[in-house]
């Protein structure tokens, strides 16, 4: 039998049932998933923690510069004789949205899932990358726009 050493765990469980859980183990609203985000060279890398989630239960979508990650943690299939002694791991659908700036290339996003971590790589758009501007010497030629701009010199 498992023993709990935290006397406040029951209060947490009751609060979850009253405010966020419709029935034990089923969330009524998407729960947040923790992320880390980094800039690595010419791309942004975002790591989502999704422990216990099967690869086929993860969706990554982009629409109008909004990246949406949805994942579902399903209960373990232990048979009909299984009786929960402690149930602290939230089950159900988790979702997280990130708003992407126009300086990111939403057309070339890549995602990989390994050991409970989803890593999404978002390249920086070509138009947002730093670039050198050539500097030339001399005056820029003046463009003639109207006949009144032309002066004639008579000798």
Tell me the layout of helices and strands.
Blueprint: H1 9-19, E1 21-23, E2 26-27, E3 35-40, E4 43-49, E5 58-63, E6 66-73, E7 92-99, E8 110-114, E9 117-123
Antiparallel strand pairs: 1-2, 3-4, 4-9, 5-6, 6-7, 8-9
Series of H and E elements: HEEEEEEEEE
| Contiguous helical run count | 1
Strand content: 25-35%
Overall form: elongated
Q: C-alpha Rg, in Å?
A: 28 Å
Averaged pLDDT: 79
How can the largest sheet be summarized?
4 strands, antiparallel
* SS class: mainly beta
Taking strands numbered 1, 2, ... along the chain, how are they ordered across the largest sheet? 3-4-9-8
Q: Which CATH first-tier class of the domain at 25-80 and 88-127 would you pick?
A: Mainly Beta
User: What's the β-strand tally?
Assistant: 9
Organism: Luedemannella helvata
Domain SHSP: 26-138
Family: Belongs to the small heat shock protein (HSP20) family.
Pfam family, one: HSP20
């Amino acid at each position: 039998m498992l023993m709990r050493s935290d006397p406040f765990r029951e209060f947490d469980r009751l609060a979850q049932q009253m405010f966020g859980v419709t029935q034990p183990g089923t969330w009524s609203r998407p729960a947040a998933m923790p992320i880390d985000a980094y800039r690595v060279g010419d791309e942004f890398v975002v790591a989502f923690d999704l422990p216990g989630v099967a690869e086929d239960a993860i969706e990554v979508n982009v629409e109008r510069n909004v990246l949406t990650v949805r994942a579902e943690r399903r209960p373990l299939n232990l048979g009909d004789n299984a009786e929960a002694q402690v149930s602290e791991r939230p089950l159900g659908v988790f979702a997280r949205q990130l708003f992407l700036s126009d300086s990111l290339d939403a057309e070339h996003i890549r995602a990989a899932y390994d050991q409970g971590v989803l890593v999404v790589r978002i390249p920086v758009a070509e138009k947002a990358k730093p670039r050198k501007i050539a500097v030339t010497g001399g005056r820029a030629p003046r463009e003639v726009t109207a006949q009144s701009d032309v002066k004639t010199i008579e000798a």
